[in-house]
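Q: Hi! First time asking for a complex rather than a single chain. Here are the components, and I think there are two in total. Is that enough to go on?
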Amino acid sequence: MKIEKLIDYIAFVLIIIALYFAFIFAPVEKVMGVVQKIFYFHVASAWIAFFAFFVTFICSIFLLATNKYIFDDIASSSAEIGIVFCSIVLITGPIWAKPIWGTWWTWDPRLTTTLILWFIYVGYLMLRKFLDEDDKKAKFSAAVGIIGFIDVPIVFLSIRWWRTIHPNVLQKGGGGLHPDMLTSLIVSVIAFTFLYLMLMNKNLKIKNLERNIFTVENK
Amino acid sequence: MKKYFKTIYYIFEKDIMLEMKSKEVINSMLIFSLLTVIVFSFIFEPGAEYKIDLVGGILWMAIVFAGILGLNKSMMSEINGGNLNALLLAPVDKSAIFFGKVLSNFTFLIFMEFVTIPIFTVFYNVNIFKYTLLSISVFILGTYGFSVLGTLFSIISVKSRTREVMLPILLLPLMIPVILAAIQSINIFIKGDEISDAFRWIKLIVSFDLVFTFVVYAIFDYIVEE
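A: Yes, that's all I need. Here is the structure of the assembled complex.
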């Protein structure tokens, strides 16, 4: 109980610190200007999305191996959070890309893979909505969780080959990050990780309550 | 081991016999794939030069969409009357039943391609068999990958409330590597481009097939056990 509250507070404080770092501490990028600030939240969201789907993958394996519903709760909560952050990535990306690349979207491997990732896990969550039996819901969605995650690197590879055959017009500009920018990014990633943990806690609690209500109702 | 393959064969035999009688799956897939091929031809100006860049994609879209239709149909016949549940209660390897279904779905799809491809060739006037063996292996490997994941997800989706709708939503994003690789290699064959590029795509399909055959084999028993 205590540790939950603690995570809530840490997440709250860290988000404010991350905002400070992103908007005030980090220098304004010379070429891109203020639009570059979105980078700190874009990358942090991407990290959370991938991490969340990885958690879904691991917990899906555990669910099939042990048959304990707690893993199903963690897997589905994580996928729900993952889809939120994946959506944030897909929205913030084009907002940045329009002024910098001059186009909202390009079929770059990373962009395309993220988009497909989003579709895979939307399918995962839809499937859960449309399955009625608890047991089937847990096991079938675990199968999607496992296969979906394994599929992602193959998708990435195939799209990279596809794009190298058709030359890439738009290249990502600039490699090196200013050290202050890197610090801000790291702070942002840590803050988002705590945000993830917080959301995870809340989500698990809801799932737990749902199960309790379900048992009471069916008595 | 011998028993395992026998189980696969019996499931396969049952499906083929059933299909010979009803012809429901094959006919609906075949008509649908031909219609797709024809409807897609309206995106071109008659005799347009650029069509050669696109026809490989059209063929595979026809195969994929018709395949989804067929997979749903084929799994619905197992669900009616609780046949699938009964099969899974049988004292044999559950994954053998699964691969039996994969084999029969694979056969239906190949049969559908066998009729669709010549008609496609006539309508679009392209030769996709410049490298006969390579073309055939692309179709066989791609169709196998499609059948493995397609059969698994058709079992999953028919148990859901929305039934048929769930299958394409789950299957299409996962099939992107196979669809992409198959289209690219068929395009290479049509245009007569560098053949070594096609090998790379074929290798990708092979690894997709191997990875998912193994993964599904490993998890299938767990996901269907009651």
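A: Helices of chain A lie at 2-25, 38-66, 69-101, 109-130, 134-165, 179-217. Let me know if you'd like any chain examined more closely.
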